């Protein structure tokens, strides 16, 4: 088209449609985004949970909806449109297969890539689905010690880990986004909203009052001291070793989205830790629920030597062995007869699966205790399956072993930066710091698991 024709169309206002349409349907690469903002977590004198405090507004948000669920995908589109329209400067990120499905439904660019870039780019994760969707999101960071906060909406089958109903998404997002911002604004339900004020000062070192970046955000009043509550869910650190004692984690499937026979590239940290000899340290795999060693399709029982704290415990003859976190105690371990453990308890649970002897019961062990599961020579060459958080990772044979210990969770230095664990945003009780930390967990036992539910 001649240049004068473009100028003529532009002057008449007709050129707008074809200059913006391509950008609306664009899927951009996550590598273009700014690096991740790491939040702070503060201890509370009145709560056993942590308080979330952003140093600046989160920018890069990963939305993880349940797979093969059209209604959930539609809800993800609704959620994405809302937060993009109400909260400026957000970049919305989706897994590749989700992005290719929904980008035509969104009137703005979205971001996607393979999971390699996620750990260094994602500020916050929002999941829409059940417990499996939360595990899928956490698995994207399974080789990393630092995981972004996870805001979960219960839209799955059981949803024991899901904190929020999707109908509450405006309030839920508001609370986590503004957490620690020190902003109080007028109610979003009113016909006229106002920009947040900048005049508040707590008298401490932060004399600027409202932190930079939140001053123009509109929405429901959070108060000037309210913060989202965070439960740091403990994980297991898992190392798989071959018969020569070499760690083979780097050759295993890295995410819970893998099919049984689908080899995926690992997602290691971009900055590798070096050992005393200068060799790269193979990162641990992390499990938020459990590690399982199982006989798989083999009809014979698995025979596994179990060591605790470098001492031989027992020769396990069973369908398999589970090592679970407190979070995983309400999953596979519960079905195998294991006890229920509160998620704040620093312990891990060793549970046999259909053991040959009735005297082999589950054990609660300190989180820092090392457990080794070694494939016995009595298996006569049979391969056993190793699964993490419900997805197969490897097959192990005679002489191979799995070493498991709890992940160290705590503060780094003297500041409020924490490492380890999976930070999950907990639904507030609406009573401020005076609310019960256990409200959601106890409710889950009663409502979803029907704990001690009367019969008849």
From TrEMBL:
SUPFAM superfamilies: NAD kinase/diacylglycerol kinase-like (SSF111331). It comes from Pseudomassariella vexata. One of its GO terms (biological process) is NAD+ metabolic process. Transmembrane segments: none annotated. Belongs to the NAD kinase family. This is ATP-NAD kinase-like domain-containing protein. InterPro entries: ATP-NAD_kinase_N (IPR017438), ATP-NAD_kinase_PpnK-typ_C (IPR017437), NAD/diacylglycerol_kinase_sf (IPR016064), NADK (IPR002504). GO terms for molecular function: ATP binding; NAD+ kinase activity. Gene3D superfamilies: Probable inorganic polyphosphate/atp-NAD kinase, domain 1, Probable inorganic polyphosphate/atp-NAD kinase, domain 2. Keywords: ATP-binding, Kinase, NAD, NADP, Nucleotide-binding, Transferase. Pfam families: NAD_kinase, NAD_kinase_C.
